[in-house]
């Protein structure tokens, strides 16, 4: 062996190349050996994990009830990890009546306290994992530790804390978020804040009204958008105050919320919002009118059908085209507006909904050459105009 190395050293530049080749081959064999060893170890680990999962599943009821004491599995890292994963999965899917035994097991075993400690003291990805795990527990004891995560200097930790508070779906979990948002002390993406607040305030949206009174600007718009998703008739006339707000986005959110109320004040409020100066407020009002079960909305929708904004006209036509018992009368009213854009929008929606043939058949079978015949001619003309417009748009798209 020594003679081989001495021969390589005496060979000059060729020896350097040979040594490089040998080193490369040695590195390749070591890498292959590491990959094979790692695959063997991971296969062994997952095989053992599967065996322990089956064993623990067979004893699951006794583990949850406490017949098998936590000391039997708590200090085995693999068993502890498996039990915690199963507990968190079941907590997320459990109904409120099935939740207490699972949370009791989490508390008595010390898993909840362990995660709270990690959320307060750990750093980096370990703290983030602890925060997300705490959110899955849906335990009120986790709220203070999660609220502390909102004050972290790291953006990922703040986002994890917001998401975790939202996953608890507890009204009390919304208070730390709302307090910091109102004071301007929470820097987190709007989408994460909106989702978290919607989950936490779903059972008690009235809490958002109290905070809305203290806010202005973008924060007020954010809370109004969340409230619009959760609005119910229980909010009462509080929504009317938002309908007269100075911010257009808040008025638009109020219009969306009013669509879920269907109270005595709903239609007058939406009537006013359908005449708003901002087009997207009018659009939200028209969309909300489509959800309201009140025949009196027809007059408001007919006026919106002649709106200067194309999107408002389309949504008004969509709502009118689905009022089947009154479609023939609505068609006459649309023709009476003498607005070509309104008529085209309405005929297009009738085509999409499949009601156009029914209306034309009913008018054609009336046997009267009067308003019905004239109406048929108008509908046929509008229909041809719509088809012509569609072909022109298709041709333009083909050219481009």
Question: Can you give a write-up of this model?
Answer:
- With 400 residues, the protein is mostly helical.
- Among the domains are: 110-230, Leucine-rich Repeat Variant (Alpha Horseshoe), CATH 1.25.10; 263-392.
- The chain contains 23 helices and no strands.
- The chain has helices spanning 2-10, 13-58, 60-65, 77-93, 99-108, 111-121, 125-137, 143-149, 155-168, 171-183, 190-200, 206-212, 217-230, 238-243, 248-258, 266-273, 279-291, 297-305, 310-320, 327-336, 340-353, 356-364, 371-399.
- Helix 17 packs parallel to helix 19.
- The mean pLDDT is 84.
In brief, what are we looking at here?
The protein is mainly alpha-helical and 400 residues long. It has helices spanning 2-10, 13-58, 60-65, 77-93, 99-108, 111-121, 125-137, 143-149, 155-168, 171-183, 190-200, 206-212, 217-230, 238-243, 248-258, 266-273, 279-291, 297-305, 310-320, 327-336, 340-353, 356-364, 371-399.
